Amino acid sequence: MNGSNPIQCDEENDETRAGKMSAGQKEIVVYIDRKKAEKHGLVFKEASAKTFTTIGLKETGMVPIAHINKVINVVKNEVLWEPSGACLLPSPPVKKHIQGLEWRKKFFKVDFHAHILPKNLDLCDKFEESGYITLKPTESGADMLKDGKLFRSIRPNCYDAEAILEDMRDTDIDVQVLSTVPVMFCYWTKNKSNALELAKYLNDDMLAIVDKHPKKFIALGTLPLQFPEDAIVEMERCVKLGMKGFQIGSHVEQWELSDEALFPVFEAAERLGAAIMVHPWDMMGADDHGSKYWLPWLVGMPAETTRAMAHVFMSGLLNKLPKLRMLFAHGGGSFAYTAGRIQHGYNCRPDLCAFDANEGPITYLATEERHARFWVDSLTHDDEAMRFLIKKMGDTRVLMGSDYPFPLGEWVPGKMIEEMDGEGWNDERRAKLLAGNTFDFLGLDPAFYMS
Length: 451
Description:
single chain, 8-stranded parallel beta sheet, 3-stranded antiparallel beta sheet, 14 helices, about 15% strand
């Protein structure tokens, strides 16, 4: 968020009168400060207008979001936002149409990293094995159940295209790239029929959304990777139906991405021109020993992605398949920041690290002559980390991705990219990161979506 939050409740002044901010109160009022609003690209239509919004709502400056019951416009006595249920999943959407507020739209924006479920997961009820996710409708959306136990509470923007489109309008996202929620990979099942049927069901659901809104959505399919031959058949089917890429997990049960069993799948992706997005799942530290402080998601996910990348690079996969386009989510985990250590291990212990590839992992990053040999999304949550990532990757290898609609994502997709400044940060770079690189990575004609 570039270091500051547009929502604050500071001292009282002409622009901002602080609301009652006690954590014990039933209602907490959040005001937006004019100067901070303008700094973040927001303007007031009228000089005297008082505007209330949920933009960037993580901390009000005095009260954690967990203590906020609702946000109200006390002038009109309107409730502008309130959480549905005890947990905030996903984050509250930004409303650009709130009275007195307008956005300055400058860039075409494509969100590469967004997740969706089918509205109906009754298919899983008929499978005669446990472990699948089903949906139970609630007043505020739905509960994801795993073997009858609550896995996660979600809102309609996790499964309803119309709700997603509304959020896209409110955050000025022009196109969204859809992929399933990783828990739906279900690589654990040994039932070939179930695995393939589930993948087809998820893919057909996303394809139907794209068919209905062809200029607003792009779909990345899912594959039953534990059965490589079936995965290739499903990949071929989806490519014929117009899919340009697929999301896969960071490992497939006991198989790492370097496993020879998976090579034919990657070979097929190169042959078909299908891009691959690697998303962490079943991450290290998810057991009881490492689950405290939400660390599997905060630390385990970046580490899991980095492990997958090390397997890809140390196996020489991208040298064997030089035309394969592969992207790693969440800014490539921690790879860019630990590549030196990984390379040092490759150099000092070739007996353990260098027996499958002729080049070290660090050679996949950018050099003075070329950009990196793989792609990442932009989800770093920190502008200095983003600067470092661009230096290590090159600005053609980073795609704006928010991890919509989940709370660990960027709540206003592309906001940090739009606000970045300094050396090398100009409109040409921003346009690449916000849309152009995604079209290039997926091999799509931007004119179709921009017309």
